[in-house]
Amino acid sequence: MSWKKESRVDKARELFRQGYNCCQAVVLAYSDLYGIDDDVALKFACSFGGGMGRMKEVCGAVCGMAMIAGLETGNIDPKNVNAKQDNYEMVRYLMNEFKKENGAIMCKDLIGLDGVEEGTRIQDREFGYYAKKPCLEYIADAAKILEKQFF
């Protein structure tokens, strides 16, 4: 499938539909723009699904958004405090935009679950599991926010 270069929102949605977690879907939708191998992108984003290992903490789509922000504005010089601060300000801006749009950045708040789900077993995405958990739209919102800011 060929993706429009100007927008990766639909690509992020489709990646989630294929079975990638929220963070992986956002990161993989843009990783080629930074010369990052798909397997590497998928591996470093894998742990952030389900609000970080299904702990329902910070939404995986938000984490993916922060990872892309790091590729755009990240600092590699440990002595350059201003660059580090600029990146942190960008991440905070993006997260606040997501929060304005969706009311929260925490997975448990977004999908209406109290606490950690039992175990780490991934639920089957068939049979409407995500019908009541609108993760697909959170992924799209994260991608739209990234595109508004960077692309």
Describe this structure in words.
It contains eight helices and no strands. It is an all-alpha fold. It is globular and about 40 Å long. The two termini are 21 Å apart.
Key words describing this protein structure:
151 residues; 8 helices; mainly alpha
Write the layout of secondary structure elements.
Layout: H1 9-18, H2 22-30, H3 38-46, H4 49-52, H5 60-73, H6 81-102, H7 107-111, H8 135-150
Helix pairs in contact: 1-2, 1-8, 2-3, 2-5, 2-8, 5-6, 5-8, 6-8
By secondary-structure content and strand pairing, the structural class works out as mainly alpha
Order of helices and strands: HHHHHHHH
The average pLDDT score comes to 89
User: Rg from C-alpha positions?
Assistant: 15 Å
Task: Show unreliable segments.
Answer: none
Query: How many strand elements?
Result: 0
Q: What share of residues is helical?
A: 55-70%
The biggest beta sheet is recorded as: none
The proportion of strand residues reads under 5%
Q: What is the number of helices?
A: 8
In whole angstroms, the N-to-C terminal distance is 21 Å
Described by the principal axes of the CA atoms, the overall outline is: globular
**Count of separate structural domains:** 1
Task: Give me a quick take on this structure.
59% of the residues lie in helices and 0% in strands. The protein is an all-alpha fold and 151 residues long.
